[in-house]
Amino acid sequence: MFHKPQKDHIEIIGSIADQHMDSAARADEQNELNYALIEDLLSAGYHTYSVPKEYGGLGVSLSDFLQCQERIAMVDAATALAIGWHHITVFNVGQNQLWDEAAFHALCRAVVSEGALVNAADSEKATGSPSRGGKPQTSAEKTSDGNGYVLTGRKTFTSLSTALHYYVVSATDTVTGEVGEHLVHKDNPGVSIEPTWNMTGMRGTASHDLVLNQVQLPENALVRRRPAGKKSIRPNAYLLNIPAVYLGIAQGARREALRFAAAYQPNSLTQPIIELPHIQHKIGQLEMELTTARHFLYSVAARWEQLERPLTDSDLARIAPDLGAAKTFAVQNALSIVDTAMRIVGVHSLASSHPLSRMYRDVRFGLHNPPMDDAVYQMLANRAISEVPLS
Q: N or C: which end of the chain has fewer CB within 10 A?
């Protein structure tokens, strides 16, 4: 069921997404996950796309994954963003070999055999974005017998929270000060979800708080150690999922604008507004912005895929600024495209029931997803400055 030919991926996932326009709107209204779409994606094996083939998954390429995410986001950006974090987590651990192989194999087995979903629970209110290197206040204390850990704390922005089976929780060791990552199952005593997510956009991500109240874990639940306060020097190319989602919103907005313009004919005109020069100018504008952003995104993805393995620090240093720039550029263009689409549709797009109204709210969240614009501009500046000959 899971091993479809590569060329069918986008068509299959797009067809599933297109059946859920109504459930996407309901999920947004009710501030909950679009369970109907998620269940259909799971039935199609979408959750296994990031699992390597040797562990029973599909092991799709980065570019194929991004195109699938775009197609989902055209209909339901919140679901695309939420389930994208599952894939980012699995891809990152597997590609960068962050865990012991046995631990990663066990997680992959749960994903493939049990339909398990996983996400990293890293953000905390006091530490801000994990990309800034803040130290978690969630604590990991050794058990009295020394054979495990007790986790206590609260994690924010835990996307897909109510559908997850596993959380990769960052916590600070109370003795060593090291930051460890612990694999926590949803059914562990002391694990709960507090429904705190009530935003204007991306409402269907269920990015609630994960609460850990003296959660007891075995020693092998510690899947990775990392030095406290140190940011990762290895860029995660699968974060290109984020710009793919926002370009999916842009494509959805484009589709709505074209449909409206082709059908709407006020009684003052003898033809639909799509034939008016100023409307065609706006269409041309959004086509230019969408085309350039997509070319940039997929050229960066292709460069990543073509790098020789294993990746060197020099390879990573050269491509990291472009990974960030692809996100910043895509979000900037997506914001503009949605705005232009709403200008074409006019006041109708402001109706709470109109898809463009939801797209307008959702696309704004791209400004607050990592990497942040200031960090991207600094990386680009540093790379440029490094090319200046020393005097």
A: C
